[in-house]
Amino acid sequence: MAALRRLLCGGKSRVSVIFQREFHRSPAAALQITVRDALNQALDEELERDERVFLLGEEVAQYDGAYKISRGLWKKYGDKRVMDTPISEMGFAGIAVGAAMAGLRPICEFMTFNFSMQAIDQVINSAAKTYYMSAGLVSVPIVFRGPNGASAGVAAQHSQCFAAWYAHCPGLKVVSPWNAEDAKGLLKAAIRDNNPVVMLENELMYGVPFELSEEAQSKDFVVPIGKAKIERPGSQITLVAHSRPVGHCLEAANVLAKEGIDCEVINLRTIRPMDIETIEASVMKTNHLITVEGGWPQFGVGAEICAKIMEGPAFNYLDSPVFRVTGADVPMPYAKILEENCIPQVKDIIFAVKKTLNLV
C-alpha cells in the first residue's frame, strides 16, 4: 500500500502520463487541474462557505490525507473542522451520521470503500433510512467519499466496485466522477445536498490532469446530481460508463472513428438517481447500446440500465441486444497480468462495438 500511495501521491504518476498522452491535453489550451486538486478545491471552498461543514476520517488532518485529497486543510481550518479518527469505520461513520442528524454537514472519508463494509450499518440503516422513518423530520446531510473500485496490485480485498451495492438502497444518492470537473462539481453538490450522498472516486484517476472550464473554476459551480453528460456525440452506437471506464470508452471511440464507426459516449456521473432519459434519447438515435463498468456483471449498473431500457420506450428502437462490458466475475487476482484481464480494457470495448454492429 505504501508503494501505491507513493505512486499516486508523489508528483506525476505513470497513470497521469499515460492519460495525458491519450487525451492530448495542451497545457496552453486551458487551466489544467488533477482530479486530486479538484477535490481539494471543492473541500476548501465548501469548508469556507459553510461553517457547519467538517471533514473526518483516517489520516485526513495532520497527514493531509492518505491520497493528499485534504492537503493543507487542517492547517487552514484546524482540529474542529478537519479531524483525524481512529481506525474504526463503524465508530467514525456513526459519529458523522449523528452529527448530521444534529444539524452539521459532515464529510466522512473512507480510505477505501472496501473498508466501508465495516460501517455499512451506519450508512444504510442510520443515514439512508432516517429521513423516511422520521416522516421527514430528521434529515441526514452527510457525504461518504473515498476511492472505489480496482486500483493496481492491491488484490481482492481492496478492489471492489460498490456502485451497485449502494445504488441498490433507497435513501442514498450515489455519484461517480470521471474527470476533474465531475469531481469538483459533484462533491460540492453532494455537500450542499440535504440527503446522504455516497461519492465513489477512483484512486487511479487522482493524479490525472484535465482541462477545467472557466465555469467550473467558479466557487458557485456544481454538477447537478442525477444528470448524465454526453462526452462525445455520435450516431451509430451508444457507450454508457461511469468513473474511469469513461476514459476507456472515449479512447475506444477515437480508435473506432478511424474505421468509420461513430460512437456516442455518455458519462453517467450519477448512479442513483440514474438519468435514464439521456440514455434512452441516445439509444433512440443510435439504435445500439453498450454499457461499460469495472464492477462485477451480476446485478450490476449495466444490468440495471438493460432492465430500464427493456421496460421503457427505447426498447423498440434497438437493432441488437444490449451488450455489457464488465469486470470479470471473480475476486480480483493479485498477479498483474490476471488483474489486467479482469478489468475492462479498450480492446474489450472495441470488440463489443464491432460484435454489436455485426462487424466481427
TrEMBL record:
<dbReference type="Pfam" id="PF02779">
    <property type="entry name" value="Transket_pyr"/>
</dbReference>
<feature type="domain" description="Transketolase-like pyrimidine-binding">
    <location>
        <begin position="33"/>
        <end position="208"/>
    </location>
</feature>
<keyword id="KW-0496">Mitochondrion</keyword>
<keyword id="KW-0786">Thiamine pyrophosphate</keyword>
<dbReference type="Pfam" id="PF02780">
    <property type="entry name" value="Transketolase_C"/>
</dbReference>
<keyword id="KW-0630">Potassium</keyword>
<dbReference type="InterPro" id="IPR033248">
    <property type="entry name" value="Transketolase_C"/>
</dbReference>
<dbReference type="InterPro" id="IPR027110">
    <property type="entry name" value="PDHB_mito-type"/>
</dbReference>
<keyword id="KW-0809">Transit peptide</keyword>
<comment type="function">
    <text>The pyruvate dehydrogenase complex catalyzes the overall conversion of pyruvate to acetyl-CoA and CO(2), and thereby links the glycolytic pathway to the tricarboxylic cycle.</text>
</comment>
<keyword id="KW-0670">Pyruvate</keyword>
<protein>
    <recommendedName>
        <fullName>Pyruvate dehydrogenase E1 component subunit beta</fullName>
        <ecNumber>1.2.4.1</ecNumber>
    </recommendedName>
</protein>
<comment type="function">
    <text>The pyruvate dehydrogenase complex catalyzes the overall conversion of pyruvate to acetyl-CoA and CO2.</text>
</comment>
<comment type="subunit">
    <text>Heterotetramer of two PDHA1 and two PDHB subunits. The heterotetramer interacts with DLAT, and is part of the multimeric pyruvate dehydrogenase complex that contains multiple copies of pyruvate dehydrogenase (E1), dihydrolipoamide acetyltransferase (DLAT, E2) and lipoamide dehydrogenase (DLD, E3). These subunits are bound to an inner core composed of about 48 DLAT and 12 PDHX molecules. Interacts with DLAT.</text>
</comment>
<keyword id="KW-0119">Carbohydrate metabolism</keyword>
<dbReference type="GO" id="GO:0046872">
    <property type="term" value="F:metal ion binding"/>
</dbReference>
<keyword id="KW-0313">Glucose metabolism</keyword>
<dbReference type="GO" id="GO:0006086">
    <property type="term" value="P:pyruvate decarboxylation to acetyl-CoA"/>
</dbReference>
<keyword id="KW-0479">Metal-binding</keyword>
<dbReference type="GO" id="GO:0005739">
    <property type="term" value="C:mitochondrion"/>
</dbReference>
<dbReference type="InterPro" id="IPR029061">
    <property type="entry name" value="THDP-binding"/>
</dbReference>
<dbReference type="GO" id="GO:0004739">
    <property type="term" value="F:pyruvate dehydrogenase (acetyl-transferring) activity"/>
</dbReference>
<dbReference type="GO" id="GO:0006006">
    <property type="term" value="P:glucose metabolic process"/>
</dbReference>
<keyword id="KW-0560">Oxidoreductase</keyword>
<dbReference type="InterPro" id="IPR009014">
    <property type="entry name" value="Transketo_C/PFOR_II"/>
</dbReference>
<dbReference type="InterPro" id="IPR005475">
    <property type="entry name" value="Transketolase-like_Pyr-bd"/>
</dbReference>
<dbReference type="GO" id="GO:0045254">
    <property type="term" value="C:pyruvate dehydrogenase complex"/>
</dbReference>
